[in-house]
Amino acid sequence: MGYFKKLDFSGSDLKLIAITTMLIDHLGAIILEPLLNNYQSLFLSSLKLPLNFWLSLNFILRAIGRLAFPLFAFLLVEGFKHTRDPMKYFWRLAVFALLSEIPFDLATSSNLFNLNYQNVFFTLALGLLTLILFNSTKKKGVQAFYLGLGVITAHLLESDFGGYGIILIFLFHLFRDQNRIKQACLAVWLSAQLTAPLSLLLIWRYNGQRGLNWRYFFYLFYPLHLLLLYLIRLAITNALL
Prior knowledge:
By secondary structure, this protein is mainly alpha-helical. Helix content is 76%, strand content 0%. It contains twelve helices and no strands. The protein is globular, with a radius of gyration of 19 Å. It starts with a helix and ends with a helix.
């Protein structure tokens, strides 16, 4: 623990951790879970390992993956705080939400279009738009309306993390630059996501520095890794059959 206290993380460090844990999560969600659910007998007989092993492995992968979204939410708020053009930031997220949707739908449902579940870029874009609208007025009632509108829209759109994600983004914005006692309430909200509260340990070691400027790496990595994982699952499925 003493060694951890000496660590600090730049924004690019946190983004790399978020991307890595997201990839680990998606190995379970996109490859392992569908194989276990749809081709369990063929999968188990081919790899000669018991079902409990694969179930435990999937649990570990998904648990590690719960770290990712809180980090992305925190970094979104940091980006909002420092950007000179919030609407340009919003439109960039919105464009990549649209570009990522077909890879996301293929990865999560094996269909080109699935209106029942939308990718996380939609949640991030909606979260950012909610912050922009919230900060556009000082009237508490109007602010509450904008926050509620963001939560309801994410829920109706069925974007990844939905209304939960919008509230988390808002809480990071609300408690930015506050002491850890206030930030601790985030852990209560994050507790609904299993290991997600551990992400606060990383966030508390954030040094306030941007780090490497590789903004578009995540924008491109997200749809490309979804497409790659879908193709890997497809290849494994074809091999099993």
